[in-house]
Amino acid sequence: MDPTQNLTQRQIHILKAIIEEYINSAEPVGSETLEKKYNFDVSPATIRNEMVRLTDLGLLKQPHTSAGRSPTTIALKYYVGNLMKTKDMSVAEEVAVKEKIWDYRQEVDKLLREATKTLADKTKALALTATNEGDLYYAGTANILEMPEFYDYELTHDLLASLDQFDFWWKVLAAHEDPFYILVGEGPMSHGALSQCSFVYHKFSTPHVSGAIGVVGPSRLDFSTVIPVVRYMGGLIRQLGSNW
C-alpha cells in the first residue's frame, strides 16, 4: 500500500517543509525548527504528533543520535514527483552552458568530456556520462567531499570505486526505458553504501553514439535545481550531436 495515498494537507505541508529543510541543511529536522520557520497554525504538540504519524507511515526516519527526523527514500521520491517546483534555468544560464561546449560540437569525445565537466561545475555535484561505446566520463569528484554525507569513508570509497566500473553504470542506465529518470537508492544502487545516493540522468541518442549524462549525489540532492540542468544538457548533446 502506498503510504502517501491518504495524507492530509497538513501532513503534506509538514512533510514538504521537513524535506526542504533537510535538503538545505543535511541535518535531521526537529519540531522546534518547523515551529520557528513555518506558520502551520497548530500547536507544537500537534506538529510532533504528525511527525510521529509520518514516521509510522515510513516517510520519516529518526537517526539514533538525533531528536530530529529525516525523509526516507519513499518520501523523497514522493516530493520529487508531487510537491517540488523546479527552478528552471534562465535564458542567460542556458546560453552560458551552450557556449562552454559549443566549440567542441564536431568532436564526440571532447564534447562529452566538456559537457560532463560543465554539468559538474553547474550542479556542484559529481557528473557522469556513459555511452554505448563503453566510455565513461566523470567530473566533479571533489564536489562530493563538500557534502556531509560523504564524510562517511565507506560511502565515498564505494562511490569512487564505482567510477572504474563502466558495466555497473550501464546496468543502472539500462534498467529503465524512460529518457529521463531519477533514481533514489533503487535498482542496482539499492545495495550497500550506494543506497544512500541518488542519480538524475537524461539519455541522448545521436547518429554516432548514444548514452546518458547525469548527476550523482546524496539522496537529498537539490533536485529542484539539478533536474532542469540535466534535462537541458541531455537535450543539448542530442542537438549538437545530430550532425556527427
From TrEMBL:
Residues 6-76 form the Winged helix-turn-helix transcription repressor HrcA DNA-binding domain. Gene3D superfamilies: 3.30.450.40, Winged helix-like DNA-binding domain superfamily/Winged helix DNA-binding domain (1.10.10.10). GO terms for biological process: negative regulation of DNA-templated transcription. The keyword Cytoplasm does not apply. Keywords: Repressor, Stress response, Transcription, Transcription regulation. GO terms for molecular function: DNA binding. Residues 98-227 form the Heat-inducible transcription repressor HrcA C-terminal domain. This is Heat-inducible transcription repressor HrcA. It comes from Candidatus Gottesmanbacteria bacterium RIFCSPLOWO2_01_FULL_43_11b. The gene is hrcA.
